[in-house]
Amino acid sequence: MNRLRQLLCAASLSLPLFTSLSIHAEEALRIGLIPSEDAQSMIESSQQVLDQLQAQLGMPVKPFVATDYNGVIEALRSRKLDVAYLGPFSYVLANQVAGAEAFAVAVTRKTGKSAYHSLIISRADSPIKSLADLKGHTFAFVDPSSASGHLFPKAGLEQAGYTPETTFSRMIFSGSHDASILAVANRKVDAAAVADRILATALAQGSVKQGELKVIWTSPDIPESPMVWRKDLDPALKQKLAAALANVKDVPWGDQGMLNGFQPTTDAAYDVVRDTATVLDLDLGKMK
What SUPFAM superfamilies does the entry give (predicted)? Predict the structure, then answer.
């Protein structure tokens, strides 16, 4: 069974988590958030966006953070969620197995663009200075379905000639970017792959100290995490939702900073993610 089949098996086991979400679409918009931080932090950091969305739509907006990325995918597939904020790779999986469609990405005042990067980090006082120095050390990825926390850094390692399964003395999935950052800072692992913006937030909030960590590798541009909806969501609600998100401005959106609205995106924007999956020999076509 290849890696993508394992991801879907994991997703199918997540279904019981969402029985509490079985409410009618006309009563509330059910929105899923991937666990890039712990569940409570994700909801708190997204609350102002959700409040504005609720006011503009004139209907309750109910957030939910799954225990892992695949839990959100399965909830979309089983129609327990209407909309979700997904990572680029988890979107590609959701598009394949759950009929999810990317329709918008956040644009922040900080960057003015819709792309970010994966970083491989180690402690500043570590002897690890390059990918070659990772051999024999412990390493943390975030989640098997995380673009910046797994897919892109793994592809970068393999393109440089290093196979994670044989390069590292021990390899774990931490469950969130925050957990990976703290694992490095607290010497639980020697290095980790994380999203640049989440590291920046951790530094700004003092979760880790300036100068405590260093970056030893940076990925190419990764398309921004999309907002997605179920393909069969009511067309009138889709139109209202896209317009409402475009008007959500001047409030913080998770780790991305202050919003300057959401702009339209399309499925084709994530072809680079599919290409990266090909580098890792992950056959998305077999997931139908």
Answer: Periplasmic binding protein-like II (SSF53850)
Q: Which of 203, 218, 233 is the last residue of a domain?
A: 218
Instruction: Specify the long-range contacts of residues 279-284, CB closer than 8 Å, at least 24 apart.
Output: 279/155, 279/158, 279/159, 280/3, 280/151, 280/154, 280/155, 280/158, 281/2, 282/2, 282/3, 282/4, 283/2, 283/4, 284/4, 284/92, 284/93, 284/96
User: Do both 131 and 100 map to the same domain?
Assistant: no
* Domain housing 96: 3-113+223-287
Count the domains in the chain.
2
